[in-house]
Design brief:
The protein is of the alpha/beta class and 192 residues long. 34% of the residues lie in helices and 27% in strands.
């Protein structure tokens, strides 16, 4: 684990990890919750997320990075800033949960030209359904998803869902095990 990853994990534990009873986007209930946005909107957290996402994508040829709103918005912003600092120009985007009924009525905000090679990011994977919505929108826009990447995988089936939908390049910076939670799922997906 790099120093940036170690510090990011500390911040995620401090700012984003909570115990209690929670209903997840997947419909399941859980006795813990990770709200990555609480770290992503913090100055140090955003800087670390950008650097970590850069490190985890620097070996991938891609043109754009983004994901499903709202969670992917601060991740995308942090990533494109870090890429810029490292001399790698990339586009950022996010997929709307629902298309607006006014204005340009776009499903995807940001410049995402057809044929672009895309990294889809999320703060937390559970079953992967929210991330899959972003993947499907990107594919409908005529782009190629070259990597799906999360800060944390709860090890509840996302990897299997992605594989069923032809997504083989799947990475996660941390798993729920890094938070001291015993999980029955597989270990981390691909590492860098």
């Amino acid at each position: 684990m790099t120093p940036n990853e170690a510090r990011l994990l500390e911040l995620l534990k401090e700012r984003s990890f909570r115990r209690g009873q929670f209903r997840l986007a997947s419909g399941e209930t859980s006795d813990y919750f990770i709200d990555g946005k609480m770290t992503a909107v913090h100055s140090e957290g955003a800087a670390l997320i950008g650097e970590v996402l850069y490190e985890w994508t620097k070996d991938v040829a891609f043109d754009a990075i983004g994901g499903l709103q709202v969670g992917a918005v601060p991740l995308t912003t942090a990533a494109v800033i870090a890429c810029h600092r490292h001399g790698r120009p990339v586009e950022g985007f996010w997929v709307r949960e629902e298309v607006k009924d006014h204005g340009t009525q776009k499903a995807i905000e940001g410049r995402l030209p057809p044929g672009a090679r895309v990294v889809v990011v999320d703060d937390v994977f559970t079953k992967g359904g929210s991330t899959l919505k972003a993947v499907e929108a990107v594919r409908e826009a005529g782009c190629e998803v070259v990597l799906v990447l999360a800060l944390v995988d709860r090890l509840r089936g996302a990897q299997e869902l992605f594989r069923r939908h032809g997504i083989e390049n799947y990475r996660t910076v941390f798993t729920i095990r890094d938070f001291g939670i015993v999980a029955d799922g597989p270990g981390p997906a691909a590492s860098r």
